[in-house]
Structure to design on (321 residues):
């Protein structure tokens, strides 16, 4: 088995978790399968860097080191990516042809894009910087929703912990699921959060209501997707008139009750399709759709695919209920 060099780029203002999360995954894989990975860190001149949280990281060497031709070139994010250093961009551009995989965590995608390495690729980054990435680099197809995106040899991930998810996916590709599972267990994380999983849950995507009755209603919706979630029923729970409830809910959460319910139900159905062996009919009832056809229409409208196709693509073949 050929050893794969993972070269992690360091710079002042790097986000420490963007570095240490993936590094711990690859290091864990190396401990389970000796000889699988060689991990190196490098800054432009080989000197120490100060992270965005104030920690100091000492790299193994400089990015100009000829020994650094990497299999996987990993660029973390952080405040230091906001204004792309011209020397860093040039060095990434020079290193890229040597690498089989280009990987970014969080706003590391901004550096890859500045080097022209994301042109013609689908990519993501932290939700707060997706608009900037799309605006500054129109040749990049920016998808703001998934926690990570893999497009040919280029893999990009959203904020912080999604770098761990992406690194686990890469280890699974290289060494198999069993090794990735051992690493995930050691790190006490889920092995598989699918890349298509949204950066936000329904609760996070909407603002949390200020008033306690509305917050309680939000929580009740999440816990009872198959319940009566009509505006009238929800308003009754909040002890408000339907009209007052709908107006207050939108003002405090940024979305309508109906849209919030739709997102919660879709999220619940996706989770059951990914993690259980329950039939589509059963899942449609448990998620509040009532019928498989109603759920199919919701999936096609929102995700562009049917529930059956969604399960085929995103649920492991070995998964059990």
């Amino acid at each position: 088995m050929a050893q794969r060099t993972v070269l992690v780029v360091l710079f002042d203002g790097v986000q420490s978790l963007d570095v240490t999360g993936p590094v711990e995954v690859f290091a864990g894989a190396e401990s389970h399968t000796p000889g699988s990975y060689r991990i190196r860190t490098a800054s432009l001149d080989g000197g120490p860097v100060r992270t965005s949280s104030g920690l100091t990281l000492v790299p193994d060497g400089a990015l100009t080191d000829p020994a650094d031709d990497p299999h996987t070139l990993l660029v973390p994010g952080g405040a230091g990516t906001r204004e792309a250093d011209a020397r860093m961009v040039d060095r990434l551009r020079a290193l890229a042809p040597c690498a089989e995989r280009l990987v970014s965590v969080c706003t590391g995608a901004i550096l890859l894009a500045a080097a022209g390495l994301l042109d013609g690729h689908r990519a993501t980054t932290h939700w707060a910087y997706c608009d900037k990435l799309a605006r500054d680099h129109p040749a990049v197809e920016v998808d703001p929703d998934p926690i990570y995106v893999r497009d040919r040899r280029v893999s990009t991930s959203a904020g912080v912990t999604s770098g761990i998810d992406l690194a686990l996916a890469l280890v699974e590709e290289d060494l198999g699921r069993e090794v990735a599972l051992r690493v995930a267990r050691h790190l006490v994380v889920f092995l598989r959060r699918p890349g298509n999983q949204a950066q936000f849950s329904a609760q996070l995507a909407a603002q949390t209501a200020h008033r306690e009755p509305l917050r309680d209603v939000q929580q009740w919706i999440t816990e009872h997707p198959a319940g009566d979630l009509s505006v009238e029923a929800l308003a009754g729970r909040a002890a408000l008139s339907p009209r007052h409830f709908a107006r207050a809910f939108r003002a405090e959460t940024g979305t309508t009750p109906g849209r919030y319910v739709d997102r919660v139900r879709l999220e619940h159905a996706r989770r059951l399709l990914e993690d259980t062996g329950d039939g589509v009919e059963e899942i449609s009832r448990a998620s509040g759709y009532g019928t498989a056809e109603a759920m199919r229409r919701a999936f096609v409208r929102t995700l562009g695919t049917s529930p059956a196709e969604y399960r085929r693509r995103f649920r492991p073949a070995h998964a059990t209920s």
About this structure: Residues 199-205, 317-321 have pLDDT under 50 and may be disordered. The chain is about 45% helix and 10% strand. The longest strand covers residues 37-43.
